[in-house]
Amino acid sequence: MKSGMMIPALLDLVISMSVQAAPKESFLRPDKVPAPSSNQMTPERVELGKALFFDPRLSGSNWISCTTCHNPALGWSDGLPTAIGHGMKILGRATPTILNTAYQRKQMWDGRFRTLEEQALGPIAADVEMNQNLDNVVAELKEITGYHAMFEKAYPGEGISKDTIAKAIASFERTVVSSDAAFDRWIKGDEKAMSDYAKKGFALFEGKANCTACHQGFNFIDDGFHNLGLKGNQDAGRHAQVPVAVMMGAFKTPTLRDVALTAPYMHNGMYKTLDEVVAHYNRGGDVKENLDPNLKPLNLTEQEQKDIVEFLKALTGEPMMVTVPHLPQ
Amino acid sequence: MKSGMMIPALLDLVISMSVQAAPKESFLRPDKVPAPSSNQMTPERVELGKALFFDPRLSGSNWISCTTCHNPALGWSDGLPTAIGHGMKILGRATPTILNTAYQRKQMWDGRFRTLEEQALGPIAADVEMNQNLDNVVAELKEITGYHAMFEKAYPGEGISKDTIAKAIASFERTVVSSDAAFDRWIKGDEKAMSDYAKKGFALFEGKANCTACHQGFNFIDDGFHNLGLKGNQDAGRHAQVPVAVMMGAFKTPTLRDVALTAPYMHNGMYKTLDEVVAHYNRGGDVKENLDPNLKPLNLTEQEQKDIVEFLKALTGEPMMVTVPHLPQ
């Protein structure tokens, strides 16, 4: 192991182990959606990014758009165990929702991109996803007359480039945020917003089940990576980025916002229901090698497991209404 | 040739040759969208049909929905020369828009279905399109809890069946109709709605260019089939349904509504622009074998051809705003 790898690996663990319980207020929505100073959100940037996000002409086949897999009809994911990409090949990992990615400090299951701007071009260029050469994307978009004015309004003087494409898509993605769910109304004081079962579930989530070891704050993430002891997993996950043993088979903690909409679950879609996920954690995982130290058998009763699922459902709000853009010709 | 085949073939021609010029009023929108008495439109049927239309779980891969090819972002088509289907194989014909299919008496390029109800299941079952066994679709939809109530509201007591799936999709498709374009405002009396070029184009369209031989009435169709003398065409088209020589290489007259949104053009997408299409007709087609008798060299000037294109653009209205449905889990 190179010593330079030690710091990010330690940080991944430090982040994941820093909080064991938290006041209700820590789950409140941040005042604003974070955006980098080099790409502040404007209506024109969001509109452009939305068009690009829906536009199949970004792919090599001109048939696959970002929405093909990050489908707003299916919680900004695809409902599949693992993704399908160019040529309809089945890929190794599940399509993560793009909901609330604005609040993540690491993108992708293995965290190989930090910002949405860095991430946006990845799936376009990946030969197993949208299979398009990035220079070709720029050239093809330049041939679509209607895009010229849209880019000029969004990024005056910057033109159509990989950089402005990425920034526009990132701007749109930052609008894809969760709405208030029953849980939010409850933490703001509406006692009737959540059922007693869900309230018990939340107490277990923070307490006996220790879910908040990783699922923390408004977005229920820790920006860390964890090996959950999934049976049969052969995917090295974060280890490809940070080659230390504890990152072998470790994947990024996903948001739990709107989690009822994004079945199936885990990086490989191996569990169809939230009940199966909670049962997995109750067993403390199935494979002990490189297992995250937070996983251990929880001895939850059947009812307690159901209560946690009720709480998880209370994290699902009204999904965002999205109108289909009319793409420039 | 079987004698039973003669009548539909003759009808195809009779329809196509019955009108040479028409009063402006003949282009007015019909009072209501036609729907069969066995499947009258209700909000519940339309809502269900919209969900099904957007749902990739109707395909064998669970990845392709009706909207993948009939994309509301691209004029309810896909912008490709010819369609892409299951396995991302490139197919032989262009994806037709579903805009105004409610007004068609024949569906598909070769007219092999008459009603939208008959047509709706075709692409789901076709192994080169959505590649799903229809019994599987029914079984899979029955497993999605949220669909039960939607079907019950739409078709009380009828359950989830091939029949109700087809009827619901057809009901949604009947809402996909063109809006008033500049041309409509002009025929209703707003002289300034169309440019003088477009007005000259319309006069040519009805007169010297004889486009109304086939493109008639509100939807600019004749429900007929015509061999347009396309260079290199190997596709038998309507002949597979009606095996008479005149139907060899003949395809259904497509709507011209919103035609500026649905490039490329012709059944095989061989022309990228409307200018190329008009130039083709001006040449009277390129292949004389089985050529439709209406096609002959038009001797239009460059300006006249441009005027017709201006008129065609004036048939494009504001595209329909569509919100993405949230699919049941």
Can you walk me through this structure?
- The structure is a homodimer of 329-residue chains.
- The first copy, chain A, has twelve helices and two strands; from the N terminus they run H-H-H-H-H-H-H-H-H-H-E-E-H-H.
- Chain A is an all-alpha fold and 329 residues long.
- Chain A folds into two domains: 3-29 and 180-313, Cytochrome Bc1 Complex, Chain D, domain 2; 37-173, Cytochrome c-like domain (Cytochrome Bc1 Complex, Chain D, domain 2, Orthogonal Bundle).
- Chain A has a two-stranded antiparallel sheet.
- The first copy, chain A, is globular, with a radius of gyration of 20 Å.
- The termini of chain A are far apart.
- The interface between A and B is medium-sized, with 31 and 31 residues.
Q: Which keywords apply here?
A:
homodimer, 329 residues, mainly alpha, Cytochrome Bc1 Complex, Chain D, domain 2, 2 domains, two-stranded antiparallel ribbon, 33% helix, globular
In short:
Two copies of one chain form a homodimer. With 329 residues, the first copy, chain A, is mainly α.
